[in-house]
C-alpha cells in the first residue's frame, strides 16, 4: 500500500521513545508527510500544516516500528519432521501470508527472513500491495555445506535442494551458491558455520565450512552490497564465521572470551535469539511434537545461552533482537516481542533491549538510514502501546496502533 505524497498526518500521544539521541519526549507531536517523518517535538514545538489530519493517540506511548532480525516465514506449524512430507507447499504459503499480517499487527514493521524461499515472494506481495505485512529483508535459500545445518539429513539430497536449500562444498562451489541466491533475489546471504539443534545428524559445536569457504562467500556477497549472516552456535564455527568476514552471528550460544573479543574487533552484530532458551525449557516439560534428538540438544544449550548473552552484552558487543520464530507452538509469529522481553529478563537494561529491537536491529540489517528511530527523514514506521514499556516491558505485546510507511494498519482507540 502506498500513500499520497502530499498528505500530512499529525500524531499526538502521551509519550514518545524516539530511539534517537533525543531520547524520550513527553506529550509529543510527530508530523508525517507521505511515507516519511517530517518533524518531531513536544506539543507546540511542531508547526502543523492547516490540512493535516490530527490523530490523537491519547494515553499511548509511541516508539519506532519493531524489527525482528531473525524470522522464518516458512508456513510451518510443527517441529515434527513429517511436516516436510504431509503439508502441501500451497498451504504453507497461505499460512505464511497470515503470519505476515500477524507480524505487522503486533508492531513489527520490518523483519529479516533468515531462510525461506516463500519469503522472497511474500516480500514482493507486500511491496506491490497484494497482502499486508512487514518490510521484508529476505535471505531466500540459505547456504549450507553437505551434511550441514541447512541440509535436511533425513531427506534425499535432491529433495533437500528442491525444498529451497543451497548445498555447497569448496571455494568455487560456495561462490556459485552465493550467485544462485542473488539470482533468486536474496537481499542478504545466510550461511551456516556450525551444526544446530534442529538438524538431526550434527550438533551446535560442530564447525561447518572452512575460513576460505566463508571468505569467498563474503567477498561475492559484499561486491554486490549484500550482507552475510551466519548461523553459528559453537565457538569454533563462530570464529570461522568472524575470521571469514561475516556481518552477523546468529544464535552464538557457546561464546568464549576469544570469540567475544573477535566480535568486538571485527565489529560483528550478535543476534542471540535468546527467547529460545524459554522455548527449550518449556519443551522439557511438554515435549510438543519434537523428536528426541532435538530435545536432547536443546537441553544442552539452556545454561550456556543466557551466560553467553550477558557476557557479550557486558563486553559491549552490538546486539540485535531476533526470535528465530517460524510458526510452531511457542514460536508463533505475533509473539516476536518475546525476544526483547527475554533480554530484559536475563539482565539487559530496558532501554538497551528496546534499542536491540529497533535501532540496533535496523543497523544490523543495514537500514539505519531508513528505519529504527523516530526522527525527521526516516520512514513513518510508528507503533503505539497502551502502557509504558520502560515501566513494564511486557507492554510491548499490547500494541494498539501500527503505522508503516505512513499507512495506518491498526488503530484500536476505544471511544467511550
Ligand atoms: Zn533461524
- What top-tier CATH class of the largest domain fits best? Alpha Beta
As for the number of domains, it is 2
How does CATH name the architecture of the largest domain?
Alpha-Beta Barrel
**Biggest β-sheet strands, sense, barrel:** 8 strands, mixed
**Total strand count, please?**
18
Give me the secondary-structure category. alpha/beta
Shape: globular
**Radius of gyration from CA coordinates:** 21 Å
What's the rounded overall pLDDT mean?
96
**Helical amount:** 25-40%
Q: What ligand species are in this complex?
A: zinc ion
Distance N to C terminus: 31 Å
What does this structure look like?
This protein is of the alpha/beta class and 416 residues long. The protein folds into two domains: 8-64 and 373-411, Urease, subunit C, domain 1 (Roll), CATH 2.30.40.10; 66-365, Alpha-Beta Barrel (TIM Barrel), CATH 3.20.20. It has 14 helices and 18 strands. It has helices spanning 83-86, 89-105, 117-127, 157-162, 171-184, 211-222, 235-244, 257-265, 276-286, 292-301, 304-315, 338-345, 350-356, 359-365, and strands at residues 8-17, 24-26, 28-33, 36-42, 53-64, 66-71, 108-113, 135-138, 143-144, 166-167, 188-192, 227-232, 248-251, 269-271, 318-319, 382-385, 399-404, 407-411. Strands 1, 2, 3, 4, 5, 16, 17 and 18 form an eight-stranded mixed beta sheet that branches. Strands 11-12-13-14-15 form a five-stranded parallel beta sheet, sandwiched between helices. A three-stranded parallel beta sheet has the order 6-7-8. Helix 9 crosses helix 10 (292-301) and helix 12 runs antiparallel to helix 13. The longest helix is centred in the N-terminal third of the chain and has 17 residues, at 89-105. The relative contact order is 0.16. The structure holds zinc ion (ZN). The site of zinc ion (ZN) has 4 residues, from loops.
Amino acid at each position: 500500500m502506498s500513500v499520497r505524497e502530499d498528505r500530512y498526518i499529525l500524531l499526538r500521544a502521551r509519550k514518545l521513545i524516539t530511539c534517537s539521541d533525543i531520547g524520550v519526549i513527553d506529550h509529543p507531536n510527530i508530523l508525517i508527510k507521505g511515507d516519511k517523518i517530517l518533524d518531531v517535538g513536544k506539543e507546540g514545538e511542531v508547526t502543523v500544516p492547516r490540512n493535516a489530519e490530527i490523530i490523537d493517540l491519547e494515553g499511548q506511548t509511541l516508539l519506532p516500528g519493531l524489527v525482528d532480525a531473525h524470522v522464518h516465514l516458512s508456513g510451518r506449524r510443527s517441529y515434527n519432521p513429517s511436516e516436510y512430507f504431509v503439508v502441501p507447499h500451497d498451504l504453507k504459503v497461505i499460512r505464511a501470508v497470515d503470519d505476515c499480517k500477524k507480524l505487522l499487527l503486533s508492531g513489527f514493521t520490518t523483519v529479516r527472513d533468515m531462510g525461506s524461499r516463500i519469503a522472497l515472494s511474500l516480500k514482493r506481495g507486500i511491496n506491490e500491495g497484494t497482502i499486508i505485512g512487514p518490510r521484508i529483508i529476505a535471505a531466500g535459500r540459505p547456504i549450507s555445506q553437505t551434511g550441514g545445518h541447512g541440509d535436511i539429513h533425513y531427506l534425499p539430497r535432491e529433495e533437500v535442494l528442491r525444498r529451497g536449500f543451497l548445498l555447497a562444498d569448496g571455494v568455487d562451489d560456495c561462490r556459485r551458491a552465493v550467485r544462485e541466491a542473488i539470482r533468486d533475489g536474496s537481499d542478504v546471504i545466510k550461511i551456516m558455520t556450525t551444526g544446530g539443534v534442529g538438524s538431526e545428524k550434527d550438533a551446535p559445536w560442530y564447525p561447518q565450512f572452512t575460513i576460505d569457504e566463508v571468505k569467498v562467500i563474503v567477498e561475492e556477497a559484499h561486491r554486490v552490497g549484500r550482507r552475510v549472516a551466519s548461523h553459528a552456535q559453537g565457538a569454533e564455527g563462530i570464529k570461522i564465521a568472524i575470521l571469514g568476514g561475516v556481518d552477523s552471528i546468529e544464535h552464538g550460544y557457546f561464546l568464549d572470551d576469544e570469540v567475544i573479543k573477535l566480535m568486538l574487533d571485527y565489529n560483528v552484530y550478535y543476534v542471540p535469539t535468546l527467547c529460545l532458551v524459554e522455548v527449550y525449557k518449556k519443551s522439557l516439560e511438554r515435549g510438543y511434537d519434537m523428536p528426541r534428538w532435538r530435545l536432547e540438544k536443546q537441553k544442552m544449550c539452556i545454561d550456556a545461552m543466557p551466560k553467553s548473552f550477558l557476557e557479550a552484552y557486558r563486553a559491549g558487543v552490538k546486539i540485535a533482537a531476533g526470535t528465530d520464530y517460524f510458526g510452531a507452538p511457542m514460536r508463533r509469529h505475533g509473539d516476536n516481542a518475546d525476544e526483547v522481553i527475554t533480554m530484559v529478563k536475563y539482565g539487559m537494561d530496558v532501554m538497551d533491549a528496546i534499542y536491540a529491537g529497533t535501532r540496533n536491529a535496523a543497523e544490523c540489517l543495514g537500514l539505519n538510514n531508513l528505519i529504527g528511530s523516530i526522527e525527521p527523514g526516516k520512514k513513518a514506521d510508528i507503533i503505539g502501546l497502551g502502557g509504558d514499556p520502560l515501566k513494564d516491558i511486557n507492554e510491548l505485546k499490547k500494541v494498539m496502533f501500527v503505522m508503516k510507511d505512513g499507512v495506518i494498519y491498526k488503530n484500536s482507540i476505544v471511544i467511550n
